[in-house]
Amino acid sequence: MSDQPAPTDAKTPIRAIPVRHWGQQVSGVIVLAALVAFIYAVATNENLDWSIIAANLFGPTILSGLWVTISLTVLSMIIGVALGVTVAVMRLSPNRVLNSVAGGYIWAFRGTPVLVQLLLWFNLALFFPRLGLGEFSLDTNTVITAFVAALLGLGLNEGAYMAEIVRGGILSVDHGQSEAAMALGMRRRSTMFKIVLPQAMRVIIPPMGNELITMLKMTSLVTVIAAPDLLNRAQVISSRNFYIFELLIVASIWYLALTTISTLIQMRLEKRFARGVAGVAPRRRRILLNLKPGRATSPVITPGDRPVVYAKGGAGS
Amino acid sequence: MSTPMVTAENVHKSFGHVEVLKGIDLEVRTGQVFCLLGPSGSGKSTLLRCINHLERIDAGRLSVDGQLVGYRERSGKLYELNENEVADQRRDIGMVFQRFNLFAHMTALQNVMLAPVDVRRLPKAEVREHAMQLLERVGLADQAQKYPSQLSGGQQQRVAIARALAMKPKLMLFDEPTSALDPELVGEVLDVMRDLAASGMTMIVVTHEIAFAREVGDHLVFMDSGVVVEQGAPRDVLSNPQHKRTQTFLSKVL
Asked: What pLDDT shows up at residue A302?
């Protein structure tokens, strides 16, 4: 017989010394030391009054500002998404009038700073003192309050960006999909809303989540038109008690909390719209997979790639 | 003789400066299995796509079941149909694509159910029952709840055939339905098509499956560089080609 060892039935685990990541360990220690030093410096700093932060974090003024920030974000995003989808569909329409109107809108609203747009809306009364026609008109300043100006400024600006995101998503859907719908006799509107847009969502959701987070932070700009948002309320308090840094930290804590929650929502939505691509693994397992370090929330799949499938039975059965 | 389902008279089509169809004259009779054969680039897929107006012809006349494709004729003048009218014309023509083109975000059953509900406005319960019968017919009733990405190529193509049949079309167009399949999956799709042909469906099939054309086809057209080179009963054309180009092509594929 040969001198090769006989194959054993039982699997013997490999015993080996794993690769040592020395660089990672050394840098880890350095980062940890720096972090400890920073926390110590902050905690023992006499210039920072922690009791002020604690007292204001859940104070009524801050909470009212928080509410304004949240409602501004949600409402502007709703305006932005609705407008974005409409404008994107218009932009891709063969109708030249719709197409140019959409192009002009995107050009104007992406081409000027949102801060300027906010100020323009807020000062609309200088240009149009009254809104409406003849007898049916209202004083501009009573219609365009700081909140409404903020909503118009943020929402219309967002719509222009969202339109480009949605357009990119629509273009990413394989042309064969709409061709198949057309061959079945489906009309353009049905094809867009039942076939193309649902599949475009997979591409649209990740940047839309980023837009939501950007929007949360962008609402702080409305402070310049004195809309009573989170930052504005924090500044109102600090202008009375002069604890400027403490109240900025209070605002930052809330902004961080809100963006963290939005990130979690974004992860859920991404999974929802990955349906039909990676939508086969049991929900819980997919979430666990996604929580593993070094893994993106959802595999990015370009149209040419083979979709990742976690089918149990395997294909071809 | 049966009535013509599709008639093409002197059909021309160009993409830019390239003339893909150079005057095609054809007649497809009701109930016929009509096979289009030819080297790639010969214009057979383009001709198929013209029949349901996925491509617009530049010259000539093309009609399906007595109706001009994409136009209305009134007192000698042609009026172009609008988008919705074109969509309405397509309802009665089923199409199966080389790359299946199943709706990726829907299950097999949802794929089959979509058009009858959306286009024909039929009640869901009725459509579901019919869809399940169709999936049964293509041997995939047990896969109804799966998404296209969970199905093999052959299974996807069979769902695609069921989806087209759900509209109860009077004409079925097949654009190289087995060309994107692994060899061992070709048979299952051809079986479904054979069954469909036996049920009397009018079918136009662009294919490279010579055996299928010989066995199932009623009429075979050989095209090359945008013209019809030769046509006739499949058995005659395949075993006794008259034209040099047909002979050269067949010697390469047989």
From this structure: 40
For residues A144-161, average pLDDT? 94
**Nearest-angstrom CA–CA distance, B138 and B124:** 21
Chain A contact for B167, CB < 8 A? Answer: yes
Find the residue in A nearest to B142 (Cα): A317
Q: Is B93 left (phi over 0), alpha (psi -120 to 50) or beta?
A: beta
Between CA A6 and CA B247 the distance in angstroms is 61
The ipTM estimated for the assembled molecules is 0.92
3-class SS at B27? strand
Name the 3-class secondary structure at B28. Answer: strand
Checking phi first, is residue B34 left (phi over 0); if not, alpha (psi -120 to 50) or beta? Answer: beta
A304 and chain B in contact, CB less than 8 A:
no
Could you write out the DSSP letters of every residue in A24-75?
A: HHHHHHHHHHHHHHHHHHHHT-TT--HHHHHHHHT-HHHHHHHHHHHHHHHH
Mean of per-residue pLDDT scores for chain A = 84
Question: What's the token pair of residue A69?
Answer: 């920030």
> CA B64, CA B73: separation in Å to the nearest integer?
14
Residue with tokens 């172009």: B80
pTM across the whole model:
0.79
Residue among B78, B71, B54, B56 nearest A186 (CA): B54
Q: Quote the pLDDT of residue A202.
A: 85
Distance from CA of residue B123 to its chain's centroid?
27
Q: Determine whether the interchain pair B115/A311 forms a contact, defined as Cβ–Cβ distance below 8 Å.
A: no
For residue B63, give the nearest of B8, B25, B13, B10 by alpha carbon. Answer: B8
Percent of chain A with pLDDT over 70: 83
- Distance between CA atoms of residues B148 and B105, nearest Å: 8
Element (H, E) at A142: helix A140-143
- Reading phi first (left if > 0) and then psi (alpha if -120 to 50, else beta), residue A25 is in alpha
- At B74, give phi and psi (nearest 5°): -140, 125
Rounded to an integer, what distance in angstroms lies between the CA atom of residue A246 and that of residue B156?
Answer: 62
Chain A contact set for B54 (CB, 8 A): 179, 182-183
What is the tens place of the pLDDT at every residue in A194-213? 999 999 988 898 898 889 99
Residues in chain A, total: 317
The pair of structure tokens assigned to B247 is 């002979």
Q: Is A139 helix (H, G, I), strand (E, B) or coil?
A: strand
Averaged pLDDT of chain B: 94
Q: Does A272 touch chain B (CB under 8 A)?
A: no
- Closest B-chain CA to A279: B147
Count other C-beta atoms under 10 Å from residue B184's C-beta: 10
Please, which pLDDT band fits residue A7 given cuts at 50, 70 and 90?
low
What tokens appear for A301 in the block? 């799949």
Kindly list the residues from chain B whose CB atom is less than 8 angstroms away from the CB atom of residue A174: 101
